[in-house]
Specification:
The complex is a heterodimer.
Chain A lengths: L1 E10 L2 E11 L4 E6 L5 H9 L6 E6 L3 E4 L11 H6 L14 H13 L15 H14 L4 E4 L8 H18 L2 E5 L3 H7 L2 E5 L5 E5 H4 L2 H8 L3 E5 L6 E5 L4
Parallel strand pairs in A: 3-7, 3-8, 5-6, 6-7
Antiparallel strand pairs in A: 1-2, 1-4, 8-9, 10-11
Chain B lengths: L2 H34 L7 H10 L11 H36 L11 H15 L4 H22 E2 L2 E2 L1 H25 L5 H10 L7 H20 L1 H7 L3 H6 L4 H23 L5 H13 L3 H25 L7 H24 L5
Antiparallel strand pairs in B: 1-2
The chains are: A alpha/beta, B mainly alpha.
């Protein structure tokens, strides 16, 4: 669904990415991990079409729904207004949403379990609720690919689990292709099929979760010793850093 | 869709329609009453009879020909001008605020009015009044909008601080330019005309002015209203709008052109009337919320009523007539200061 080929990006004469190549298949869930400022957002912006490659290409087959980092609206739009804006591609230049658009917006608000918040001002919602509304907005565009920039940053554990569970459910039930960036390897373990570890602007690891998301790779990615740790009940495992004293 | 959804949707719609209906009634009542105001007394009933006489001529007029002239030649065009200008300026302000994602924007504080004022002044000096003034005011107005946009956007983001400062820069430049044109003007004939015109007045509006005002304000206002949903989307931010698939360049250019045309029409006929576009959308937003489908029509009605009231004050408060632009500034600037304090205490200077 997404092909990134020899992608290089330069922003204000500063090279951000050099020769990145990867592809995302239909129904895949790709988690992107990397240090702050390594270019995760730039890579996502190229895929979405908000940033222009200086060479190479990032192409996608299928409509993209994009959820930016924690979103704030200048004006006090209601939740329903925000989700209706997801219908931009279906409403003409001089048009406005019709009954069908309202129905679709309501359907995805209900699916995200935030239908009851429809008339509330968007800015007054909690971070987790806002992410769910933004996902409902992306789904209202009837996208086939969902791209999320750090959907769980600034969220508490409860809200993180709601967002991650939602992504898993969307992938399971609708076969949606999902790409998201995150700082928590656990999110990759929970929901991703593939992982991209961005070490710097040239070096990266890309592959299946089991092959790439390892303690060794994460240690070199973050330059901190990271170990694999099993949960006490033995069912799952996670990664934990040793912070030096 | 569930029944509850339909009920709530029609509830919002019902409320908006109720507000629109109420404001329309207020507008007609005020407009009629305004025609009776002035040194020459005319009863409300006679106003209606004189106007109705144009549709169905009365057999035995209950009014004098002088009264008919006062209503039809002097007061009616002026009042229609106030309504159109108030509506146009309020719509311009609401659209620009959506586009710049900033409730502090008005054509006057981002330099459009000063630009149009310079174009108009130059045209008056060189060729006289009418449509050349409109054309020159439009060209300079849209030029200043583009300069402000270029100055205010740093890496695609526009903060209140850069926007207001860019407006200050462009306004200062064009005011100096206007001063130079004034220096060149004939001090006995053109200079007083330019000076009084720049203060903003609709006192001398006749029907040919009214046609020019309508041409400059009505079509662009309709275009802005048609773009209501796109303005909603753009008010989320350019990147977000682009990601949603909105044709943002087309929308931005169309709105810029429409707003410049409205400003040029106002400036060409009535001089500099500022701050209406700041005050009115703010009030309208508290009534119907930020959705431009509701905000734009309610702003238009409120703007029309507001400018009508201001014009009534302008012509009745003192023996000599006050320039309308001075009164809108006296009201608008403190409102600007209050909204500025409120938004900045909430989000800080540099907040997008």
């Amino acid at each position: 669904m997404i092909d990134v080929a020899d992608l290089s990006v330069t922003l204000s004469d500063k090279p951000i990415l050099e020769n990145y190549s990867l592809s995302v298949g239909q129904g895949d869930v790709l988690a992107i991990l990397g240090a702050n400022g390594v270019g995760k957002t730039t890579l996502l912006n190229c895929i979405v079409g908000l940033a222009r490659p200086s060479s190479g290409s990032a192409t996608s087959r299928g409509r993209i729904g994009y959820v930016p980092q924690l979103f704030h609206s200048t004006f006090a739009f209601s939740v329903l207004d925000i989700v209706l804006m997801g219908r931009a591609r279906h409403v003409g230049l001089f048009g406005s949403p019709r009954r069908l658009d309202y129905e679709i917006a309501q359907k995805y608000l209900d699916q995200m379990k935030v239908g009851h918040l429809r008339d509330r001002p968007f800015n007054e919602l909690s971070g987790g609720q806002r992410q769910l509304v933004m996902i409902a907005q992306a789904l209202s565009s009837e996208c086939e690919i969902l791209i999320l920039d750090e959907p769980c940053s600034a969220l508490d554990y409860k809200n993180q689990s709601i967002v991650i569970d939602t992504l898993r459910a969307l992938n399971d039930s609708m076969g949606l292709t999902i790409v998201f960036s995150t700082h928590a390897p656990q999110h990759g373990l929970e929901v991703a099929s593939h992982v991209l570890l961005m070490k710097d602007r040239r070096r990266y690891d890309h592959g299946c979760v089991d092959d790439v998301l390892t303690a060794g790779n994460l240690s070199s990615l973050y330059d901190v010793a990271i170990a694999k740790a099993a949960f006490a009940d033995g069912g799952k495992f996670t990664f934990a850093p040793y912070f030096e004293r | 869709m569930t029944h509850a959804t339909i009920a709530v949707l029609s509830g919002t719609r019902l409320r908006t329609w109720a507000i629109v209906a109420l404001l329309s009634v207020v507008l007609v009542v005020f407009a009629t009453y305004s025609i009776t105001l002035g040194r020459y007394d005319i009863a409300v009933v006679d106003v209606w009879r004189i106007v109705w006489d144009n549709v169905v001529p009365a057999e035995a007029p209950t009014w004098t020909p002088v009264q008919a002239d006062v209503v039809e030649v002097i007061r009616l065009p002026r009042i229609l001008a106030a309504l159109l200008i108030g509506a146009g300026l309020a719509i311009s302000g609401a659209a620009l605020q959506g586009l710049f994602r900033n409730p502090l924007v008005d054509p006057i504080n981002i330099g459009v009015t000063a630009g149009a004022g310079f174009g108009g002044t130059l045209a008056i000096l060189m060729v006289g009044g009418g449509y050349p003034v409109l054309a020159a005011a439009f060209a300079c107005g849209i030029g200043s909008l583009l300069v402000v946009r270029g100055l205010a956007s740093v890496k695609g983001r526009t903060s209140t601080l850069t926007l207001v400062l860019a407006g200050v820069i462009v306004t200062a430049f064009f005011e100096s330019a206007i001063s130079i044109v004034k220096l060149l003007a004939d001090p006995h004939q053109k200079l007083p005309a330019i000076t009084y015109w720049l203060m903003g007045s609709i006192a001398a509006t006749n029907y040919s002015d009214l046609v020019l005002i309508a041409v400059a304000i009505v079509p662009p206002s309709i275009v802005i209203f048609l773009l209501r949903y796109q303005i909603n989307i753009l008010s989320l931010g350019e990147d977000k709008a682009r990601a949603l698939g909105s044709p943002i360049e087309i929308v931005q250019w169309t709105i810029f052109a429409a707003v410049s045309f409205i400003s040029a029409g106002v400036v060409a006929t009535s001089g500099i009337i500022g701050w209406v576009g700041l005050v009115i959308p703010h009030v309208a937003r508290t009534l119907v919320g930020p959705d431009h489908g509701r905000l734009l029509p309610v702003s238009a009605l409120l703007g029309a009523i507001y400018l009508l009231l201001v014009d009534d004050i302008a012509r009745t408060a003192t023996v000599a007539e006050l320039p309308i632009g001075i009164i809108t500034s006296l009201i608008g600037v403190p409102v600007f200061a209050i909204i500025l304090r409120r938004t900045q205490s909430r989000s800080g200077w540099t907040h997008d």
